[in-house]
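Curious: can you check?
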Amino acid sequence: MAIMRVLGLMSGTSADGVDAVLAEFWGSPRAPRWRIEQSAFHPYPAELRQHLIAVGQGDARNSAQLLELAEAISEAQAAAANACDPEGRAELVGCHGQTIWHRPPASNKRGASWQLLQGPLLAQLLHRPVVFDFRAQDLALGGQGAPLVPPCDEALLGRTGGWRALLNLGGIANLTLIPPASGPGSREPVRGWDCGPANTLLDLAVHQFSGGTQTHDADGNWALAGRVHEPLVQRWLQEPYLQQPPPKSTGRELFGRPDLQRRLKEMERAGAEPTDALATLAAFSAAAVAQDLARGPRPIELLVAGGGARNGALTRELRWRCTGMAVRPLEALGIADSQREALAFALLAWWHWRGVPGSAPSVTGAERATVLGVCARP
């Protein structure tokens, strides 16, 4: 099978910008050979990011404003693509778009998810086919539409001697559990779900505490200077979403600004200073992951990626709470923190091009696996 060069574009719940990866794929779709050629990050302009976070919190915008926002996002995606692949060598582009609202399925209502993007416009801007709208088909089959990356994790990294966990610390913390290569669990399918908040609450709190001058806690230094209020962490772990078994998915709709304000009031009553609040929020994010992992099967290692992997407070809490497993960066396996999800959407686009199902019912709860995405051609 010939080598195909694919560009993957991803902007997650943090809405800080677009990660881009230019990769080559060849061989068997389920166990492809692959190579990352280049990667880049294109930050969203500050005003665009503010609008995206506001819309993601449910703030109202009229139709004209949403249209202009979709155009701005598409242009930012094109800028990221050109920064990563200035010579236009990619034959195909996979673009996630920007999630502005996600509604998981409920007992009496199907799920829905909105990734803002003008796919045909992006195809014209890049002069290449663009695969986008990856979540809709899984949602139509009764699935969560998220997370979509776990099957890609398994295909890209393969299996090892025991259960392997991958944790992405973006706006939301999501887990992939890859079964072992042999033994009793080897016949199990890949698993994955959204655990709870990773950076959404932390970033919003930093923005508030800094009077709008900072967007995140660089290296977790503020949180590292604080004291964790453990009784609050343990109480928060009992909340309905965190007790819900997979499949499950979430976003700013649940862990956004109103949720932060509620938690800050509880911490204020407990006498927490801003640094204590950040330390407690970091501990809460880590504790939600550890609680899910404790329910089994127990992985032998936890590979960590995403922007939160650079937060020293968050990673310290993970190592302390996820006892009995090796916690190390995904970068040790050749995929940098900022590359994992963009690489996954490049792979999903390649699977779409080849007619290979990209979803996993064991992850999303859909009726069956299906080819994901819609292709727009220039």
Remarks:
- The chain is about 40% helix and 20% strand.
- The domain at 150-333 is CATH 3.30.420.40 (Nucleotidyltransferase; domain 5).
- The first strand starts at residue 4 and ends at 11.
